[in-house]
Amino acid sequence: MTMQIAIGLYEGFAALDAIGPYQVLTSLPGAEVLFCAERTGIVADEDRMLRVDVTRTFADTPRPDLLLVPGGLNTRLLAKDGVPIVEWIKAAHPHTTYTTSVCTGALLLGAAGLLRGLPATTHWLAYDHLRAFGAEPTEQRVVIQGKIATAAGVSAGIDLALTLAAEIAGADVAQAIQLGIEYDPQPPFDTGAPSKAPAPIRELVTAVMRDAESTLLAEAT
Amino acid sequence: MTMQIAIGLYEGFAALDAIGPYQVLTSLPGAEVLFCAERTGIVADEDRMLRVDVTRTFADTPRPDLLLVPGGLNTRLLAKDGVPIVEWIKAAHPHTTYTTSVCTGALLLGAAGLLRGLPATTHWLAYDHLRAFGAEPTEQRVVIQGKIATAAGVSAGIDLALTLAAEIAGADVAQAIQLGIEYDPQPPFDTGAPSKAPAPIRELVTAVMRDAESTLLAEAT
Question: Which domains does chain A possess?
Fold first, then answer.
């Protein structure tokens, strides 16, 4: 039996949010991992240099077993009723085995009404946005609440996917996948979480992100 | 001044090998990160579901400041004289600031004659292949030898790219990028390196990879 795993893309998705889980989940026995979007054709990432040729629409993919949405700055604009990816999540969620997000993909789950009253996570700079959808933001890297799983910023999608692989196929399979991608991380600094980073670094990243958000919102109005 | 960072793709590249570094390096101030390949058009990854629309050829990209090649099973066939990506590496390397690889991308650097007599790394299952090019395989996650930098399997490209970001732009910038992608990894298991994995898991992954290699070589002849 095949498990269909659908990664929903949109213009401006963050590349690693999608590809970290993709790399892990394609090794899951019996899994078919596919990308889908509102329309077929090219969907570019946030940095515009990764152009993904998407061959399936949301309409072609109404019943994924595992649904995953990546984050990206554009979620600030997309996280609302009537937006195709949000409507796709709403319609698919009652039938999924897992509905999941990486980074600010959680805002899309929030807009679909899935996170009300639930602990969930997202990029550390987006906790307030998540709270606006009735979720209770937590600093955990991966949060599993029943069949809804959310991961922290960008790189946390790898940890999410390995956690799901263990739930779906058992620890041995997940360990084999982890060894296959040689995931024995050795970050050059131990400052990858807001609680660990020096204040000036945290302030720098916050300022850059707030600027990017302001520019995005100004361009959108 | 712009630093041109070129990620060379080929049919069957491993997605995360390319996208891990891409996600890190696109945040480097003054960097232009682009994908290139033998021909423009769609290049599919090893699992065939990620279809990247490449808009630059190797010929369009003769002088990258930083050259990076991802790994993939197909490197077993491509790592030889006369193959376009190997010839591109040979011609570009004398002019780069850094020439780098992730996973079995190191075999392509080896085929280009860059690793003779040097310590280098690759996926843990490909040490023998690397040795065949005169390199001295090491179990380090990131190996920097002058301007040549090699990373271990798949996910190690993230650690490589952050290490390079620190060399190029300083520790503060690299820490800001690391915090931006919230890279505070928490793998569900501590078995992501061959020395840490239980023997049965290591044997399983070895058997799967050797099978895939045999199939590839049988199909190619």
Answer: 3-185 (3.40.50.880), 189-221 (no CATH)
Is residue A103 flagged as an active site residue? Answer: yes
pLDDT digit string, tens, across residues A10-59: 999 999 999 999 999 999 999 999 999 999 999 999 999 999 999 999 99
Q: CB contact, 8 Å: B141 with chain A?
A: yes
**Which residues, at least 6 apart from A49, have a Cβ–Cβ distance to it below 8 Å?**
B22, B26, B33, B34, B35
B200 in contact with chain A, both atoms CB, cutoff 8 A? yes
Per-residue pLDDT reduced to its tens digit, A183-203:
999 999 999 999 999 999 999
The answer for residues whose C-beta is within 8 angstroms of residue B31's C-beta and 6 or more apart is B2, B3, B5, B25
Q: Return the SS3 of B169.
A: helix
Question: Which of A178, A195, A204, A208 has the most B C-beta neighbours within 10 Å, making it the best mutation to test the interface with B?
Answer: A178
Rounded CA-CA distance B163/B121 in Å is 15
Q: Of the candidates A164, A136, A154, A152, which has an alpha carbon nearest to the alpha carbon of residue A67?
A: A164
Name which of A35, A51, A155 to mutate to probe chain B: the one with the most chain B Cβ atoms within 10 A of its Cβ: A155
Among the partner-chain residues A52, A183, A193, the one whose CB lies closest to the CB of B155 is: A183
Q: 0.90 exceeded by the pTM? A: yes
